[in-house]
Amino acid sequence: MSSVHSTHPETRSHILLVEDDPEISSMLEDVLSESGFVASSVGSATEMDGVLKRGGIDLVLLDIMLPGEDGLSICRRLRAGSQIPIIMVTARSEDIDRIVGLEIGADDYVSKPFNSRELVARIRALLRRAQGGHEGASAGVHPLAFAGWRIDPVSRQLRSPEDVQVALTSAEFDLLLAFCRTPGQVLSRERLLELTHGGAAGPIERSIDVHVSRIRQKIEPNPHDPIFIKTVRLGGYIFTPAVKEV
């Protein structure tokens, strides 16, 4: 049973809950509404597709365990054609299940049972990052170039040396931008989380490895032998190209 709001003020972010448990959906809608969001809920992938087709959704809160098409499949499908922010919700405790969600393009995740304040903090942090408003954005608004690539913090676009736009999730974009703003520096996973999340609630450090892997797949000539983002044993990562403002 879906509960979809037809109108909402433009200044309020619209969160779509994809959750088949009516009690959890109702609770989450109340929490999000009290926190200043517009909240809608659907119970299946089919219902979700109809809502997203109408537009106006700013973030998807996606449960993994759903009837029919599950959350991981939905996330993979959404990422194939959209960069809408996605937070996965899982009742599974194993890190591997969470990592799989990140590997297929989720921006963040929360585990059931979760603290409602933490969930709201994660949503707000992700929306800020998706809109270019996280704290790291104050470091500069000029486009940056490296090895023929161009990354623009204002339009939040990455363009290849062939001037083709390359799709990145919000988390991937923020991580690559952090690297571009700190070239030649060894950055620990903890430091990268600080740079990309501005001190707000964020995922485990292991998620940095997942996002780095996804970025390498998109920018490295050979992702298996990276030359741009190098791993520093026991240290983290270092971005090797020269970077300049353009």
Automatic annotation (TrEMBL):
Domain OmpR/PhoB-type: 141-241
DNA-binding region: 141-241
Key words of the record: DNA-binding, Phosphoprotein, Transcription, Transcription regulation, Two-component regulatory system
SUPFAM superfamilies: C-terminal effector domain of the bipartite response regulators (SSF46894), CheY-like (SSF52172)
Organism: Chelativorans intermedius
Domain of life: Bacteria
Protein name: Response regulator
Response regulatory domain residues: 14-127
Pfam families reported for this sequence: Response_reg, Trans_reg_C
InterPro entries: CheY-like_superfamily, OmpR/PhoB-type_DNA-bd, Sig_transdc_resp-reg_C-effctor, Sig_transdc_resp-reg_receiver, WalR-like, WH-like_DNA-bd_sf
CDD domains xref list: trans_reg_C
Residues with PTM 4-aspartylphosphate: D63
